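Hi R.,

Here's the chain you asked about this morning:
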Amino acid sequence: MNIQNIAGGVCAAKGFTASGVHAGIKAGSAKADLAMILCDTVCSAAAVYTQNKVKGAPIFVTQRNTADGTARGILCNSGNANTCNPDGMEVAQACCELAAKATGLAPGDFVLASTGVIGQALALAPFERGVPELVKKLSKEGGKDAARAIMTTDTSVKEFAVEFDLGGSTCRLGAIGKGSGMINPNMATMLVFLTTDAAIKPTLLQRALSDVASVTLNQICVDGDTSTNDMAAILASGLAGNACIEEPGEGYEAFCDALHNVCTKMSRALAADGEGATKLLECKVTNARTAAIAHAVAKTVIASDLFKAAMFGADANWGRALCAIGYTPGDFSAEHVSLVLKSGAGQVLVCEESAHAPYSEEEASRILAENEIEVLIDMHDGVESGVAWGCDLTYDYVKINGDYRS
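And the predicted structure, written out as C-alpha cells:
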C-alpha cells in the first residue's frame, strides 16, 4: 500500500480544524493548556481507555458521550488530570456544556480529556475564559497549537499525518499526542487524538483502533506506571468520498495499515520523549512461539529498569535482557535466544544460544552511545514477531518526578 507522509496533523483530514490557547489552568504556568479539535460534520467515533481502576472523570464522560459511536469534537486540557476530585464529574460535564455553548453543538458531541496532576481540584473559571477563545481561533493551521496545549512534561510536539488511497479516493489520517511519564499503557498511551476523512462504520472504527493500539500504542513503556487518564480517540468525518467501510475486507485492511503507520510513528515519538530520556529503545522479537509472546517479550525487555539503566550507561549488559525474557508470562522456551544490539554505529552479537557470545566491549559501548538503539531478539522458538518501544532510565527521570507537582 502506498502511504505518503503529509503535513497538517489532526487538521490534514477534510472537515477538521483545531486550536490551542493558554487558559491558566495550572497556577504559575504560562504555557498553552487548552486544546480543541472540531469537525464540520458528525463523525464516527471510537476510543480506547486506561485499564487503571482509578480513572479521571473525563474518561467516564467520554465513554458516555461516544456510546452511540459518534462525536463532533475533542476538548482537552493539560495541567490538571481532574482525577480523584469530589466534584470531578460535575466539572467535566460543565466543560462539555461550555464547549457546546461556544460551538452551538450539544454537550454529548465532545470527547473530553484531561492530563496533569492527580488529586487537585480543577477550577471551571479557566474553561469559561478559554473555551470561547478556542472556538474563535479554530483553523486548518491550528493542529500544532493544539498539540502544544496538551503537553505536560513533553519536550517536543508530536503530530503526524499520512495520505492513502481507498477505492480510488484519497484519504487522510492525522494525529497529535502527548506523553512523557507515567507511561505503561494497558490500552493506548497517555493521550492520542486521531482524525481521518475516511468513511468507516463506528463498529469497524472501534475494532481498527483497538487492534492497532494493541500492537503499537500498547507496546510503549517509559516507567511502568499506567496513567489514570490514558485515552486514544479517533474521529472519522467521511468527507474523503470513499465508499463507507462497513465490513472487513480490502478497504478495511488499507485503513488499518494507515492507522498502524501513524500509531507506530506516534509510539516511537512518545517513547523517545520519555521523561529524562536520552535514547530511544526499539526491541524487535522474531521467531517466537506466538505473536502474543513476541509482543510480551519485547515489552518486558524495554520495561526492565535494569536494562534501561544499562542502555543509559552504554553498557552491553545482555544478561538483564535475558533475565527479563525469562520472567515474561507465557508458555515458551528461552533456551536458544540470540541477542543483537544495533544502532547507526553498527551492530554486535552479544548473546547466542542464551549464553555469552564473544564480543568487544569497546565496540558495544560505541554502538550504544547512539541516541537510537535496536534490541534484536531471536527466540528460535517459532515464527511470530513483535515490537515494543521504550527509553533509557536516567538521573533526570528522578529529578523531574521528585518535584512534579511544583
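The chain is about 30% helix and 30% strand.

Let me know if you need anything else.
M.
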